[in-house]
Every structure is written in C-alpha cells, then in structure tokens.
Amino acid sequence: MLLVWLCGCSNGRNDFIGARVKDSCNGSWPVCNQTASCFIGDQSYIEGRFPGEGKIIVRLEEPSEVKVSFYFDNISAVGNLTSIVWYETGCTASIRSDVPGKTVATESNATGVYTRSASLLEQDEHLVSFKSDLEATYLMKVEIIPTVL
After folding, report:
1. Are 105 and 78 contacting, i.e. CB atoms less than 8 angstroms apart?
2. What is the CA radius of gyration of the chain?
3. CA distance 87 to 97
4. Which residues of the chain have pLDDT under 50?
5. CA-to-CA distance for 53 and 64, rounded, in angstroms?
C-alpha cells in the first residue's frame, strides 16, 4: 500500500511570520528628530539585509515589553556587533542591547531566531533602531506584551 502524506508542513520561516503581513518599510516617518521607515506591530514584519541598519516605530497603548526578533535566512559572516536601541517617547531615555556577532549567530542557529526585549513605560510612539555588521538576510518582527505595573 502506498501512503502519501500531504501536509501544510511548516518551516522556521513560515512559523516566524505566522499570519503577519509584510511591510515594505519604505516610508518616512518623523520620530525623535530622526526618520523611521515604518510602523511595525503585532500584525506585520519586515525583510532586510545586514550589514546595515534600520529604524522603525512601535505604538504602545500601555506600558509594555517590546520584543524584537530576527529570523536569519543565511548567515555568511558573524560580524562583530548587533545593536538594538529602544527609545522612550521623545527619546528622553533609551535601553540598548549590544551583542557580539558570535553570540547572535549561536543563538539564531540554536533556536532559528535571535530575540531581545525591553520594557517601555509610556503610552505613545517609540523609536526602535537596530544595526549589525553580520552578513545575512533577515525577517524582523516585534511583539508587544503589556506589562502590569
């Protein structure tokens, strides 16, 4: 007897995206005397390439943990440093994560995803900037998790 298994088999990339919609992230939005390319929330994701940098805006309705996650399709060089900076409204304060390239590569190879998060307190729009000298293509998404104060 011949059995054929048809499945909507998932892979890491599809699992990472889920039901999110790709944002081309090619706009120009003023925030903190700078310009961000798009608003990203729980419904969207962006694609890009490192080495390079990007700036996005997240909108919070209440104090929240903002989790930034990257899914790397292929890492051809680990680079030296990957940085993510989360800014409070008006860029009055920031939280920065600087991680060596080898750590980023190890974490993403182990789990498929590289993630860092920060708690932001103000209900408003927040700049999130990121840069890396890692060589790879990526998908990036944010998750907004309300925090109880």
Report:
1. yes
2. 17
3. 12
4. 1-8
5. 24
- What would the pLDDT profile of 58-94 be if each residue is shown by its tens digit? 999 999 999 999 999 888 999 999 999 999 988 899 9
C-alpha–C-alpha distance, residues 133 and 87, integer Å = 21
Instruction: Spell out the residues 6+ positions from residue 132 whose beta carbon is closer than 8 angstroms to its own.
Output: 50, 51, 52, 53, 79, 81, 82, 83, 101, 104
Does the predicted model carry a pTM greater than 0.85? Answer: yes
CATH assignment, 30-146:
2.60.120.380
What's the pLDDT score for residue 141? Answer: 97
Burial label, 40 (beta-carbon count in 10 A; 0-12, 13-18, 19+): buried
- Give me the pLDDT at residue 48, please: 95
Domain ranges of the chain: 30-146
Residue 9 DSSP symbol: -
Q: Is 66 helix (H, G, I), strand (E, B) or coil?
A: strand
Residues 47-69 as b or e (16 or more Cβ within 10 Å = b):
ebebeeebbbbbebeeebebebb
